[in-house]
Amino acid sequence: MKPASTVIIYDTTLRDGTQGEGISFSVTDKVRITEKLDQFGVDYIEGGWPGSNPRDMAYFEAVAKLKFRHAKVAAFGSTRRAGVKVEEDPQLRLLLEAETPVVTIFGKSWLLHVTEVLRTTPEENLRMIEESVRFLVDHGREVVYDAEHFYDGYTDNRDYALATLEHAARGGASCLALCDTNGGKLVGEVSEITAAVVEKFPQTRVGVHCHNDSGLGVAVSLAGVEAGAVMIQGTMNGFGERTGNANLTTILPNLALKMGRRVACAGNLPKLRELSLFLDDLANLRPDIKAPFVGASSFAHKGGVHANAAQKVARSYEHVDPAEVGNRQRVLISDMSGRSSVMMKAREIGVDIDEKGGDMKTLLNELKALEYRGYEYEAADASFHLLLAKWLDKKPDVFQLEGYRVIVEKRGREENLVAEATVKITLDGETVHTVAECTGPVGALDKALRLALEKAYPQIKDIELRDFKVRILDSNKGANARIRVLIESSDGEEIWGTVGVSDNIMEASWEALRDSMEYKLLRNQTDAASSAAG
Q1: 73-127 pLDDT, tens digit each
Q2: Which of 55-64, 183-192, 393-402, 441-450 comes out lowest in average pLDDT?
Q3: What is the dihedral of CA 375, 377, 382, 387, to 10 degrees?
Q4: CATH topology classification for 399-456
Q5: Collapsing DSSP states into helix, strand and coil, what is residue 161?
Q6: pLDDT score for 1
Q7: Angle 238-244-245 (CA atoms, 0-180°, nearest 5)?
Q8: pLDDT in tens, 27-46
Q9: All structural domains of the chain with their residue ranges
Q10: Which residue spans within 249-369 are E strands per DSSP?
Q11: Residue 344 — pLDDT band, cuts 50, 70, 90?
Q12: Which helix H or strand E contains 9, and what residues bound it?
């Protein structure tokens, strides 16, 4: 049988995704995510479990006021309780009160769960499934049936697992979603079992709902589609309980770009990285730079040979065009870099280098020497930009340091630490001397430098230090070890990284702070020159 070419995307980020450790969304967050997913072209958005908490109830009230372009919102719940009449089950009543066009309910497929968890009979479980689905369908809802632990149940007792699906289909379910609830199945098992179900239910859509406990969430989901499933349930960025759910940011481009399947959001794939970052931002998580397709490292080239080949024939080292998923090619500068890497990196950050002009070998040797001392430019594009500008004699001499001093003082018996920093610079021929206090020495040094520069360069006020990392480079030297400091800064529009290295943590911090300020001023100068030329 030839698999269907259209695949329905069912997003459960707002329900299953929030069961992941450290993941929590406010009602406002959930509404914003819903709007974003709808704009992106997701087919179904599972919003939560009505009655499980006040937040989900408030969400369904808020989302009822939205107008959707494409997506359908689903409320999630379970079949009726054992021994309770379907019309008297309070949880089913709450599902109706959520007033969503779609309701997704789960039921037990594995006899182990029927007898040991629900503590009911196999026959009663089948009635619970069929009656619950029919009750919701009779009240005008489209019902997606999630067959919990289906693959385990099928392996344990094939006939009973299929019987649960038969009763869901008889009740009127629009889709039978087969769940690998504990994420333990391998690709071959999921493929074989899904194909058997698709053959058994030719008139009903079959979907897959997979987890990533074996590191195969994406693989088994795609295998399900190849076996004939027409719906994939998953979460953006793979959020979810334990090791997470099947990751839709990986599944979607594979479906559309590699498997030739039609998905409603295919035209919006160039916004995929933006969507991924949006979800991470609302979840207050740092993006996974190694994430396929959307990670910052997905199309990053470090080795000189690789970079050279990627420059000549991008597809030799890039399995898709980065732009197709909203990403871009990056070149990482390290002691493995060659002439091609430096040239590509320069173009990437907007610096014009004539390969035949100037002594490129001198620049490469300086770069390798700096890397040997501990400088690292992979996460410090701004510092590399300044290095290039200095080499090209295009780096503005913004200020000259006369000196700085940092004092940390503990006042009284309480844990009241105060850091004071003094900075003295020469700016436009005049000496500027500033003092600032903060709870930490780096914060105090940052504030003092800002105070010294802000009068002449008010744009410095826009800079925010977003991240600060310290790495000991040669730990065998103990307290005398060299230290690398990486600082991430932003002005609200751009994010940049700078680096400093020294056997003194304050000097390393100073270098990274100074580069951050100088990069901002260099970019402003470059932008102003471009505007004037235009």
Answers
A1: 999 999 999 999 999 999 999 999 999 999 999 999 999 989 888 899 999 999 9
A2: 393-402
A3: 60
A4: Double Stranded RNA Binding Domain (3.30.160)
A5: helix
A6: 43
A7: 65
A8: 989 999 999 999 999 999 99
A9: 8-282, 300-373, 399-456
A10: 300-301, 330-331
A11: low
A12: strand 8-11
Tell me, letter by letter, the H, E, C secondary structure of 70-114. CCEEEEEEECCCCCCCHHHCHHHHHHHHCCCCEEEEEEECCHHHH
Cα–Cα dist 198/192, whole Å: 10
Tokens (6 digits) for 149: 């632990």
Q: Encode pLDDT of 164-209 as tens digits.
A: 999 999 999 999 999 999 999 999 999 999 999 999 999 999 999 9
Q: What is the pairing mode between strands 175-180 and 142-148?
A: parallel
d(CA 345, CA 339): 10
Spatial CB neighbours of 424, under 8 Å, sequence gap ≥ 6: 401, 402, 403, 404, 431, 432, 433, 434
CA distance readout (Å), 318 to 182, 296, 344 = 33, 14, 15
The token duo for 115 is: 């007898």
236-270: per-residue pLDDT in tens? 999 999 999 999 999 999 999 999 999 999 999 99
Contact 480, 503 (CB under 8 A): yes
Bridge partners, residue 502, by sequence: 483
> Which string of b and e fits 318-352 if b means at least 16 CB within 10 Å?
eebebeebbbebbbbbbeebeebbbbbbbeebebe
Q: Domain spanning 8-282: which CATH class is it, in words?
A: alpha beta
Secondary structure (DSSP) of 368-406: HHHHHHT---TT-HHHHHHHHHHHTT------EEEEEEE
Q: Is the pTM of this model over 0.85?
A: no
The number of helices, as runs of H, and strands, as runs of E, in the chain is: 17, 16
* CA separation for the pair 375, 109 (Å, rounded): 57
Is pLDDT at 356 greater than 50 in this prediction? no
